[in-house]
Amino acid sequence: MTSDDPVAYECADNIARITLRRPPVNALSLDVIRAVVAALRRAADDADARVVVLASAIPKRFSAGLDLDILLGKSGAQIREFLQALYIDLYDAQYGLGKPSIAAVGGAARGGGMTMAVSCDVVLAAESATFGYPEIDVGVIPAIHYAHLPRIVGRHRAFELLFTGRVFSAAEARELGVVNRVVGDAELDAEVGRLATQFAGKSAAVLRMGRAAFMRQIDLDYRRSIASAVDDFCNVATSDEAQEGLRAFVEKRAPNW
């Protein structure tokens, strides 16, 4: 690992830390997603790691979501390769992690950044963190969250968030159940550390077996749902409307739909 790597991995005091560090906004390229998945698999095999924290090194940014180069002018097969990593591989890595994972959201989380955050078992947020699903505004859809969000916040509130694309605060995210707790910006690292230390102090074997049982119980048809989400996203992203929306965003103009 070098200082140029977009994702850092370190383990100390039984806590593995996976840190996004792709300036300026932690945009998610295929390489970044694959690096996160590789880091999760490394943590799963790391006997010293009893809990995993996913965080950002970029001030006021968790992740702005997908790198638009992945979508602009790309074929369905090329987009599918990326979604395989973001939707399926990320889910599988978290599913088989064998230890608790915590997302530490200290800034803006959008689109694919939301996917990263909610893939974790627990989400802690700073007061100034903000959330949102802006895909609809550029002509694509947050397909995986059609499976995830209604289960958490209910059908009607999920529809409003997903189809307006509006930004919402950490406080609202907490009220909706999207995040576990909200703390002051300066307190986030300490709060994450306290919770991680609590998890790390439990029996590693019992946590592994208990988490596996928990994941089996909550999974139900979720794995099938995210597989369908890959198809849904590809169908929309390759449409003329989506390509126009993406170009308009890059060119900072209103889309001509």
Automatic annotation (TrEMBL):
<comment type="similarity">
    <text>Belongs to the enoyl-CoA hydratase/isomerase family.</text>
</comment>
<dbReference type="InterPro" id="IPR001753">
    <property type="entry name" value="Enoyl-CoA_hydra/iso"/>
</dbReference>
<keyword id="KW-0456">Lyase</keyword>
<dbReference type="Pfam" id="PF00378">
    <property type="entry name" value="ECH_1"/>
</dbReference>
<dbReference type="InterPro" id="IPR029045">
    <property type="entry name" value="ClpP/crotonase-like_dom_sf"/>
</dbReference>
<protein>
    <submittedName>
        <fullName>Enoyl-CoA hydratase/isomerase family protein</fullName>
    </submittedName>
</protein>
<dbReference type="InterPro" id="IPR014748">
    <property type="entry name" value="Enoyl-CoA_hydra_C"/>
</dbReference>
